[in-house]
Give the backbone structure.
Amino acid sequence: MPLMTAADFCDRNAGEFGANEALVDRRQRLTWSQVKQLSDRFAVSLVKLGLERDAKVLVQLPNCAELFLIRLACEKAGVRLVTVTPTFRLAELAPIIRFTGPEAAVVPKLHRGINYLDLLKAARTEELRFVIVTGDEVPSGTLSFEEMVADAEPAGDGERFENRRYTIVDTCQIATTSGSTGTPKCVEVPLYTRLLTGWIHLKRFGVNADDRLAAATSIVTGTADALVYNGGCASGAAVVLI
């Protein structure tokens, strides 16, 4: 396996076949060039918020292009992503936020009838300074993901966040695991673990840049994380988020 992160593979794909379709969800289709540019822009936005390297950002989103882009951006900006699945409610969310102490969070206002902004407000701690909302409805006192991406100046080819960007031995993700009972436990995930698992899947199934990978489960956990998020970037295959 090349010693590259998903973000490194993404940038390589943009240079080698940037016009190829890379990312599809129910609202949009993006090429590898667009994925690189948008993830660069959000990485710049995170740095402009004043987040230091290894600061934590919580994300609770369904499978969508924004979730994919945020993961790449955090690898580039050297920010640790606390990944929370959309099925979690206050009983799970509150202890995760207390334990990890994120300085920013990214949520939809509403998804499938659940108000995730209200959930976040109920679990919010003093450390949580920035609330970023995806979608068109952005309440007062929160930041718009779309506006942050649109307003940021993309990094130039020579500006690859060298002083912040994570390598494969760094921990970018703080995931959760429930075990058998009780409150979800928080687990640091070094980048190489899911990258290696994804690489093994790619070789086993013979996946290449002409293929398409669909994630029917969340890309922040399990096989969809390894094969679709990390494997999609590593192979250059188009990723479909269900």
